[in-house]
Design a protein that fits this description.
homodimer; mainly alpha; 10 helices; about 75% helix; elongated; DNA-binding
DNA sequence: GTCTATATAGTGATAGAC
DNA sequence: GTCTATCACTATATAGAC
């Protein structure tokens, strides 16, 4: 059993290792500039091992993307439970995404700014993904609540979170130097002031 | 002279035709999913003709990108001259970009949302391009003017234009149906309220 | 399950006729 | 200046040994 669990663990580790190498390479060089050879080399394994765990390069990207969407969905659901006003929920989302931008930049880059449709034909566009849908739902509750101005949902959600997405983009580009969390209060106030009732 | 000017005109047209085909294909399928064959086929010419006008596929993308940045720079400069407050200038920029999103969606998509660094290694990242720099300059003048809150430049610019960029993105994705211009007033007011002094 | 070696296909770009 | 034909290369993915 010792050996068995070790093997299982190794397999899990290898799978994760491949996903990790792929994530870093996809975000730094881009999906199409990354060959399976590059991934293999970075993970210190052979092509055969890669194709044992994944059926194709595309599948690696797909699993990566789906995992990230799921993780975000869970995090957002937790926020939904912990807070009960649109104000607090939206602010918590902004805080979370700013923090993840610092702690897991590659994941944020790949989830938010990769052009998934170009290499995962079957992928849901990020705009209609679960996490983004949840954000709109939270805003909708805020409108029903009279917390937020009664403007068309997509519009007001974009106004509220547009600055945040832009800043995450700039931070990942290194146009902004320090951690975004430092600016959370300022950015939140600008955003909220724009849409609050 | 009739023939000469006709030839010159034809050449110009051919060059433009290649650029146009490339632009549409790059935005719909992506740069890497578009082969020179695809461009050739779409423009109804031969590979030889393409390589007579451009040294490589990369150069086509580069010329395309540079042309778009130049066009935007000129348009922004005109706005600088026509208006004299940050409020009016920024609003005019938003109006212009919303309008261009409807009239020239492929150009907007390629200029704003293509991952240029992945296929044009020499390209300036869009964030430090001339048009984006001008936007920050306009906001800076507005801060000096006491029109806009005195917050770190990149932050306040992102808050002001973040919603706009997000909406353009959603519109190009077809997440939003109607023309954005219809919502200019609403969006502008949310954005301005957030950063105005 | 992991390896090496290889098949196959498609790419960007060039050569040379017209 | 535009064409056709073709080169040289790299990529993904597979086969089969261990």
């Amino acid at each position: 059993m010792g050996r068995r669990s070790k093997n299982i663990s190794d397999n899990e580790n290898l799978r994760e290792k491949i996903l990790n190498s792929a994530l870093v390479l996809f975000t730094t060089k881009g999906y199409f500039n990354t060959s399976t050879q590059d991934i293999r080399r970075d993970a210190n394994i052979s092509v055969g091992a890669v194709y044992h765990h994944f059926s194709s390069k595309e599948e690696i990207a797909k699993v990566l993307y789906e995992n990230l969407l799921e993780k975000s969905t869970s995090a957002f659901q937790e926020i939904m439970l912990r807070y009960d006003t649109a104000h607090d929920r939206c602010r918590a989302i902004m805080a979370l995404l700013f923090e993840l931008t610092e702690s897991r930049p590659a994941e944020m880059e790949f989830m938010l700014y990769a052009k998934h449709r170009e290499f995962i034909p079957s992928a849901t566009p990020i705009c209609s993904s679960k996490p983004l849908t949840m954000m709109r739902e939270i805003v909708q509750l805020g409108i029903a609540n009279k917390e937020i101005m009664d403007i068309e949902l997509v519009l007001v959600t974009s106004c509220l979170f547009g600055g945040m997405f832009r800043l995450i983009n700039l931070r990942l580009d290194c146009t902004i130097e320090g951690p975004l969390s430092k600016h959370l209060d300022t950015v939140w106030e600008c955003a909220w002031r724009g849409v609050a009732r």
